[in-house]
Amino acid sequence: MVGLKEELLKSIWHAxxxxxxxRSGKVLSHxxxxxxxxxxxxxxxxxxxxxDDEGPVSNQGYMPYLNKxxxxxxxxxxxxxxxxxxxxxxxxxxxxxxxPLMISDEDAFKVWVIFNFLSEDKYPLIIVxxxxxxxxxxxxxxxxxxxxxxxxxxxxxxLNTSREGLSAWELIDLIGSGQFSKGMDRQTVSMAINExxxxxxxxxxxxxxxxxxxxxxxxxxxxxxxxKPNIISYYVSEDLKDKKGDIILDGNCCxxxxxxxxxxxxxxxxxxxxxxxEISASDKKKKQEWIQAIQTTVNLLRAGSSPPHKEARQKxxxxxxxLLAEQEELERQMKELQTANENKQKELETVRKQLEAAAAxxxxxEKKRLQTQVELQDRFSLELERExxxxxxxxxxxxxxxxxxxxxxxxxxELEEMYKQLQEALEDExxxxxxxxxxxxxxxxxxxxxxxxxxxxxxxxxxxxxxxxMTEAEKQELENQRMIKERALQVAMQQLxxxxxxxxEALEQYEEVKKKLETAANNTKSWKDKVAHHEGxxxxxxxxxxxxHLITNWGPAAFTEAELEQRQKSWKGKKATSE
Length: 579
Fold this sequence. Notes:
Layout: H1 2-18, H2 21-35, H3 42-48, H4 56-59, H5 62-69, H6 80-95, H7 105-118, H8 129-143, H9 149-160, H10 168-176, H11 186-200, E1 206-213, E2 220-228, E3 231-235, E4 243-248, E5 254-258, E6 267-271, E7 276-280, H12 284-303, H13 308-416, H14 426-469, H15 476-523, H16 528-531, E8 551-552, E9 555-556, H17 561-578
Antiparallel strand pairs: 1-2, 1-7, 2-3, 3-4, 5-6, 6-7, 8-9
């Protein structure tokens, strides 16, 4: 009953959408009750179509009424062709094309009914390209023409680009235009439509003239036989107006071929539970076709299966649904892959941005490092220039002091003879020697501090060398020049430091000797008049010694030879450690 209800709804939908429900709903409901043999319910009809806001039309629509009061009461004892013709009458005038077609209105009606059978179970109703191809193939086969697959493929491509399928009226226009029946006359097309209509709608599996043997008179009479899924009806002629009887088929029936007898050929027998029927076909081919068709029908009844065309339609529908499900699953998978791809692209974009940011930071750090290196190089060059200027000044001062020192030494040599007679100043000289020893220790401490400062300077120099070694290969030549200048600077610094120390020592010794000489001058007043004309020289004179004198960087006779060797070894060791 569910399948029957779906078939009825398709025809009713066409009629319902073509009418103005407020004015013609009662007419449609009344006609449906009439053709479907459903008892009329005037009270329910008036209640449904009453003209106020509380009526079922306003808040429930027409379908609840149709299901409850009409379709649920349908028993199946009605004429399907008459039902379809009533619905066709209500919708054809509004929707049928006004352009001339090569098919009649009756043929258009049959195409419309076939459309309702083959259309999809969703609204608005359409027939998909696969079902259009199936119908056109059936029509072409019925017309005895060849199927033009390439032509239909082009039409299918054009159709798929614009819509999912055709409506009933577009299908009528397609068949009526003769696009797929070129070279065929109207009668041939009409016969093909009628044959397909009989098969798909009226469930006519086979039909044709054959001879039937009577049960009482045993005579042979020509009849028009019509095979349906559960019955074989036979008529006087093919107009189906004078029906002579039925052969009821079920799973217990069988069909078998008979040998020729009584001058009749191509005989076969249909056995039923209560009666058997002898039939003669026109030729062997027709005989075999009828035997096979009847046997197939009996087999379907035994298996409880639907007619072949309905079974085929159901399989095509299931196949389409399966393909649609597979396509939807494929689209879902494609969307998932696309989403995963987009996420991957976003991740890659994030990684790319991170790499770009890291590269930018690295470039910025490299830029800062190069800038720092350039600044250090500029600072080093500036300090190098400054050191050169200081060295030049110091060299000039050293040359000047050396000249003065030579003069002082010359004066000291002149005064040494004069002070040999100052024996009473020996005690003072011893005291001066003790003081000198104290000064020497102070000088040693200063020398150690100077060595520490020198080690710090060399450490800074090593750090500077490590920084410079990180520069690029094109800086190698500048590095070599810097090393040469550095070594020259070290030598100059060493010489400058030695000269500076010697100058400081000479000045300190000068001050000490001056004090001693002033003291000695007070004690040796007897010699004051003799040395008064040597103005200013007494400041550098110091008492002599019986031992040989040594002139060193720290002043005359400041250290012994052993002390000098010890200090020289200590200095060389510190220098090797710093290097």
